[in-house]
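Incident log entry.

Two folding requests arrived from the same account within the same minute. Monitoring flagged them as a possible duplicate submission, but the sequences differ. Recording both here for audit purposes.

Request one:
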Amino acid sequence: MIFTKRWWKAALVRALKTVAQCAVGLIPAAATIAEVNWATVAGTAALAGLVSLLTSLAGLPEVEE
């Protein structure tokens, strides 16, 4: 069932994992840590998290009964 406490917990865990994966994936694009465009990393990672939440609307296998 969508929007239960269990659904929100599962969806947020997935979204946070997606944000972390996206951010880590963007960092090596710069030659040094000082050259990382942190605004781009944060914006792209946040967008990935939002898309993850929207994708969760289609269903989460761990929440299905």
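Request two (distinct sequence, not a duplicate):
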Amino acid sequence: MNVEHSKDEDFMKEAIEEAKKAEELNEVPIGAVIVIDGEIVARAHNLRESEQNAVAHAELLAINQACRDLGSWRLENSTLYVTLEPCPMCAGAIILSRVKRVVYGAADPKGGCAGTLMNLLGDERFNHQSEVTSGVLEIECGLLLSDFFRKIREKKKLAKRMSVAEITKTDSE
């Protein structure tokens, strides 16, 4: 394992910790950290449900924090680590904030714009492109998401069974 790959895994583990914070809030477990010169300068996790805000994605929140704390909208020497491949909105913010490199864990077949559905981050028609590394701790990142959605489906099934049982109980009385 080379040194860069090892560092990528270390920082992805930090993004996974952020994703777990989201899950504790019943948010989709996606986490992000931004690193400059080997130091985490921003960290965030999804807050869409908590804030009832469609743009409260982990990447956008981390970019916003980094820009605010660094006093610049240009994140030219940064690497963004995120547990799920960025969506089109986040890819746009990554381009506009000049993030140098994006490292993601799990691919997103329904919305991924860092190579799965399309690669906005490498599109040379934009005035900035980001280097992309995919699949870092992919299994761990993917399991966070699949386990989260499995639990939601189980809760819905249980709720449906309980409501059917209530209706049956009421009918028999």
